[in-house]
Specification:
heterodimer; A: 478 residues; mainly alpha; globular; B: 175 residues; alpha+beta; 2 domains; 4-stranded antiparallel β-sheet; 5 helices; 47% helix; 12% strand
Chain lengths: 478, 175
């Protein structure tokens, strides 16, 4: 087996492009090696750099806690919001984080339904990222309601006022969409983790570890009677998550599209938002995975082929987003609606032109580098582009929200929005929360789906015959 | 009280060997056996002669409940009990109920799938005799285990089949 994989030191067999490189390379291409490689991350002594990063992340998370406490104490006036701009960094931050989450679900659900086997090395970490990003996102609408202790009013709970929520409001749809998304993502993630927790339980050297992973694994014993139901459940979860993830950002875009604000009231918003969400999410996955594979020596499991495939998706979705930017301008002109036209000319050349062109350079221009094979296989290039795309996607939401609001129908209420220090500290703090959770995840959970990676290796097939396979390959090349 | 009978546990090196063994056991008419593998071996349910799972029906029932429940709830709350006039639109506007009905359908389906999975597999169950096998830790790593349960009437026949196929570490584990 190892001889066969050494033969494919490169990712794609150049002699026959239809032959793909194996998903697990080199010395890691055996079942026990995969188990060892992933489980060791959890079992090794805590690395010092990890502690350092965790300390940093926790400090930032404390900034978040402080900003929220101050916000609850003083009220929303703490933010830089003003008469016209009643949504700004808070909703920008919300859409930014929820968008990032979408890549995880795309990888775990849509790529599963499309039988993309390469997803197995990245789905676990991407799903974790989804959950943590959705948690970061949920902070914004939760605290934006002002009196956060009355948040339960958004749920249809019987109350002493005999009132029910307004089911015709997209903001209420959002409550249900995002909370369903968070719940389903957690359930799906946990189901995927159970067999790997069992692996960690069976390898456990300490009693604590055996008990904790034993409980988390629910006593999983790899029974095929269980696998049969398990695989069906996995398929159903993928089938449920696929329309769910598309609906979440669609409904987020309804928050804007169902209003009559110029620049928001357009039908392109749902697909444009979904494409943008996947785009930003993949950029975040690539950024995180590049660090993880280096830090934990996962190069043989998270190969250049995996990263290259993700970069191709970034290129595709980035181009969709670029197309949507262009189409918005076209429709603004073609509609003949003077408010719409003004909104777009103002967006590109008005007071926030700097933000608009930052967005265009980061989102439309930067990913174009990935047309070149050399660049989309280069770690430094993909890392830089990933960061640029995330900056660009933050600006996209900022541009949509603030440029449309700061010039409304009533010129006397026109103004220029500037964030207060608390807007900034809150946003920085959400990164603290996200990275704290992500660091805990990489330390204590299997960062790669061990069972799933084994399942896509050639020797996992019960009809696999190493010698016959090799002979057939030779014959094909003769 | 009769003496509790042991479970027979052994393992194979490759999915192919396990597949072959399961086919043999199935063809001999052995029912009370199981395979324990580190990952789902494709097609093994056919080799074992297992019936498809009922899980999709549970999910369908939950999803349908969600769809009708959420629609009914919105219709009653918005249309009957507490109508709010929003831009003169009808109080019970089904078009506006679609997103929420959809989300609740997905949510209840997911709950059905999650709890249905553990219900059908009877998990959590923190102890099972097979875990007493001395090499059990490899069942979630790289080996492919077979267990013959004490309820199997052709227990000895099963042992002979497994022996003839070269199963490793054949051990009888106490319950």
């Amino acid at each position: 087996m190892s001889a066969a994989s050494a033969q494919y030191a490169i990712d794609i067999d150049e002699r026959d492009p239809s032959k793909r490189a194996p998903l697990v390379l080199g010395q890691d291409a055996s079942f026990p090696a995969v188990t060892d490689r992933v489980a060791k991350i959890v079992e090794e002594k805590t690395p010092r750099t990890w502690l350092l990063f965790l300390a940093l992340a926790v400090s930032l998370a404390l900034v978040l806690a402080g900003s929220l406490a101050k916000l609850v104490w003083d009220g929303l006036g703490l933010w830089g919001l003003n008469n016209g701009v009643f949504w700004a960094w808070d909703i920008t931050g919300f859409v930014f984080w929820i968008g990032i989450g979408h890549a995880g679900t795309l990888i775990s659900a849509i790529l599963f339904l499309l039988r993309q086997k390469w997803r197995t090395s990245i789905n676990r970490a991407a799903e974790a990222m989804t959950i943590f990003a959705v948690l970061a996102a949920l902070i914004y609408p939760t605290f934006h309601v002002g009196r956060v202790w009355l948040l339960y009013w958004v749920f249809p709970l019987p109350n002493q006022m005999s009132m029910w929520p307004n089911f015709k409001s997209p903001l209420l749809w959002d409550v249900f969409a995002v909370s369903t998304y968070a719940t389903v993502s957690v359930l799906f993630w946990f189901v995927g983790l159970v067999p790997d927790f069992a692996t960690l339980r069976d390898r456990a050297k300490t009693k604590t570890r055996a008990i904790v992973y034993g409980i988390l694994s629910l006593g999983w014993r790899g029974s095929h009677r269980h696998w049969l139901t398990y695989e069906k459940a996995y398929l159903i979860f993928a089938g449920l998550s696929t329309p769910l993830v598309l609906s979440v950002h669609t409904i987020v875009s309804f928050d804007f599209a169902t209003s009559i604000i110029p620049g928001w009231h357009t039908t392109i918003f749902p697909p444009y938002f979904v494409a943008g969400a996947v785009f930003s999410g993949f950029a975040m996955v690539v950024t995180l995975m590049v660090i993880c594979r280096k830090a934990f020596g996962l190069e043989n499991l998270l190969t250049i082929r995996h990263l290259e495939n993700m970069n191709k998706i970034i290129l595709a979705t980035g181009s969709m987003v670029g197309y949507a930017y262009g189409m918005e301008f076209f429709i603004a002109w073609y509609s003949g609606n003077e408010y719409e036209r003004f909104a777009f000319i103002n967006r590109a050349f008005g007071p926030y032109a700097w933000a608009y062109w930052s967005m265009i350079s980061c989102n439309v221009l930067a990913p174009q580098l990935f047309w070149f094979k050399k660049l989309r296989r280069s770690i430094p290039v993909m890392f830089a582009v990933g960061i640029f795309v995330n900056i660009g996607m933050w600006f996209e939401r900022f541009v949509i929200i603030v440029t449309s609001l700061h010039r409304d129908y009533l010129p006397s209420s026109w103004s220029y929005f500037r964030p207060s220090i608390w807007d900034i500290s809150l946003f920085v703090g959400t990164f603290g929360l996200f990275f704290t959770l992500f660091l805990l995840f990489v330390r204590f959970f299997p960062v790669i789906a061990i069972a799933e990676v084994k399942g896509v290796m050639p020797e996992a097939d019960p009809h696999h015959h190493p010698e016959a396979d090799h002979a057939a390959t030779e014959a094909a090349h003769a | 009280m009769p003496e509790p009978k042991p479970t027979l546990v052994c393992y194979f090196d490759t999915p192919a060997d396990l597949f072959h063994a399961c086919e043999k056991l199935r063809d001999t008419g052995i029912k009370h056996f199981d395979a324990h593998t580190p990952f789902p071996v494709h097609g093994l349910e056919k080799a074992m002669g297992l019936k498809p799972t009922k899980l999709p029906w549970i999910v369908l029932a939950c999803g349908t409940t969600g769809l009708f429940g959420a629609t009914l709830m919105q219709w009653w709350m918005s249309g009957v009990d507490y109508p709010i006039n929003i831009s003169g639109k009808p109080a019970a506007a089904f078009q506006a109920f679609v997103p929420l009905s959809f989300e609740v359908t997905i949510l209840l389906s997911a709950f059905g799938c999650f709890f249905g999975l553990w219900g059908l597999t009877k998990l959590p169950k923190f102890y099972d005799p097979v875990m007493k096998h001395p090499s059990w830790h490899r069942a979630t790593d790289d080996k492919f285990f077979v267990s013959i349960e004490p309820a199997e009437p052709k227990f000895e026949e099963a042992r002979k089949i497994l022996e003839s196929l070269g199963a490793h570490e054949m051990v009888e584990v106490e319950p």
